[in-house]
Predict the 3D structure of the following.
Amino acid sequence: MVLLVDFAVFGFEILVIAFLGFFLGKFLHKAILLVFKRLTRETKSKLDDFLIEAMEKPLQTIVILLALFFLSGLFANLQAISQAISKYLLSIIIILASFMLSEIFGALLRWYYVEGNELSKFKMDISLLPFVRKISRVVIPLLGISIGLAVIGVDLTGVLAVTSVAVLVLGLASQETLANLFAGLALQLDRPFYYGDFLKLNNDEIARLEKIGLRSAMLEDLNGNKIIISNSEFAKQRITNLSRTYHDSNAIVLIDVPAWAGVKKLVSLLEKKAGAGRIEGLEKKSSFKIYIEKVGKDFFQLGVYFYLKDYEKFTIAKHSINEIALDFLKKKK
């Protein structure tokens, strides 16, 4: 009976300090954040706001843990809990500090992405920042956990050995995923092209690069369709970067014309429209050339060549040329 009563008292005391520690920690956390927000309310930069937002959850955990630590020391029956927390306090603080450092680093990257790139003299490619953030979110906490476990005397040799074997097995089972991962890493670091660049792929398709993720790259073709290519396949392709050439890019629009329509008249019409500046998106009138690409039994295929500085205007020029040809064919019927 006595043991049952002692156990009940012990459980009640645990519930009390857990309840008080949680709400005391939440109260202190809110008070600390309120002070920080008042101090930084008048600043123009968003950096302090990002830092406070990033530290909110780690700071809350630390405050609740400290509240539980001090409250457990007030009860004689819970001295063991207080001593256990005290014994591992340094390790716990190191681990929590690593998570907070990871969030602070993420806040700095976010600030640089939003406004720091324009204000800072130090310039870097902001398209790399999401990739750097993903890496830091894993590496920094892992380092903190390793150091925290080492502080309390945990031998990491066996853990590393088991982890290495597990990683090897997983690597063999997911070679394609790893190939995409390392190809994405190589593309991000090498930077052969940037987001927004127009690329000519192996199949002569032209698309604008939107994003390079960990496993795949996303592009958009000239018709607005999304193209998803695995990083390993994307990295192997022979790609022409039309946005990074030292001269104007050569563009071509193919038009199939029925033999009865009068190819020479259509060529003359297109050249006249180009000379008068009636083709939208066309930058250099002198670059406008028309050749017969193919002769069929009952049709001709015309190749309309012109140069562009900005390949984003290609869709506009193509649409304008096709509209002129379509109006010509309608009148011929």
